[in-house]
């Protein structure tokens, strides 16, 4: 089944999912945050078929999430500013996973690199700094 293109949708969530809605995309971004840069290393860490990985990396470069550089005979993939901006999304998703899914033995943990302590739970804040809950957020639909 072919995915519907949501590029011009009025909803920013739909437009974002048009770019990062495939699970491989977020897992590649996760590994890139951890320092993975080479095709073979992505393939090894993810266990994804080479053809799927090649297609996904190509799409991510076209979307501006990654850029490539040639290091000797090897191509490396690095996060762009657009790709790096997904960090809060991945932290929030990881924290949701820690709270609502069963952990595997030896689960990955996100830590403050300086203090080597767990991260504070991500919160949604108003413009003036108030912590907002779902009941505090209004979704303005298009007319």
Provide tags for this entry:
globular; 2 strands; 41% helix; 143 residues; mainly alpha; two-stranded antiparallel sheet
Task: Write up this protein.
By secondary structure, this protein is mainly α. It is 41% helix and 8% strand. It contains six helices and two strands. The protein is globular. The model has no long low-confidence stretch (mean pLDDT 91).
Number of strands: 2
Overall geometry comes to: globular
Indicate the mean pLDDT.
91
What's the main sheet like? 2 strands, antiparallel
Low-confidence stretches: none
- Work out the helix count: 6
Output the helix-strand order: HHHHEEHH
Widest sheet, order of strands: 1-2
Please state the structural category: mainly alpha
Distance between the termini: 31 Å
Write down the Rg. Answer: 18 Å
Question: Strand share of the residues?
Answer: 5-15%
* Quaternary organisation of the protein chains: single chain
Report helical residue fraction: 40-55%
């Amino acid at each position: 089944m072919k995915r519907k293109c949501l590029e011009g949708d009025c909803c920013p969530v739909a437009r974002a999912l048009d770019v990062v809605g495939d699970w491989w995309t977020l897992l590649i971004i996760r590994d890139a945050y951890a320092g993975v840069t080479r095709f073979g290393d992505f393939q090894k860490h993810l266990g994804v078929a080479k053809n799927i990985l090649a297609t996904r990396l190509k799409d991510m470069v076209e979307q501006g999430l990654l850029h490539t550089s040639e290091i000797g005979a090897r191509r490396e993939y690095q996060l762009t500013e657009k790709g790096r901006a997904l960090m809060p999304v991945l932290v929030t998703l990881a924290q949701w996973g820690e709270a609502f899914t069963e952990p595997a033995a030896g689960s990955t943990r996100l830590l403050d690199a300086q203090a080597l302590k767990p991260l504070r739970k991500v919160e949604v804040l108003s413009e003036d700094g108030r912590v907002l809950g779902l009941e505090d957020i209004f979704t303005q639909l298009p007319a």
